[in-house]
Amino acid sequence: MRKILVIEDNESNMKLASFLLENAGYLVLKATDAELGIELAIKEQPDLILMDVQLPGVDGLQATRVLKENPLTKQIHIIAMTALVMAGDREKIMDAGCNG
């Protein structure tokens, strides 16, 4: 079964993402902050990471940079998730190492 790690601090967003992904047949790993997400990514080696951009403490873009610099996780595709998009955010997200 393919694993997707969802790193999201909003409980409603986490429930929705998990529900949709589990119903599509994926095993969903969950983290509510970047630190736990990084740990899970290293330990579980998911096939994909859905990364909230705005997280408490270490934000999603910083976490993406950490994961892309680590030889154990640099190959994992990361998709940014955010509800607050401003001009230039796509470039910042892609520059941090997200794949989309």
Automatic annotation (TrEMBL):
Phosphoprotein as UniProt keyword: yes
Pfam families (alphabetical): Response_reg
InterPro entries: CheY-like_superfamily, Sig_transdc_resp-reg_receiver
Domain Response regulatory: 3-100
One example of a Gene Ontology biological process annotation: phosphorelay signal transduction system
Record-listed 4-aspartylphosphate modification sites: D52
Keyword line: Phosphoprotein, Two-component regulatory system
Protein name (record): Two-component system cell cycle response regulator DivK
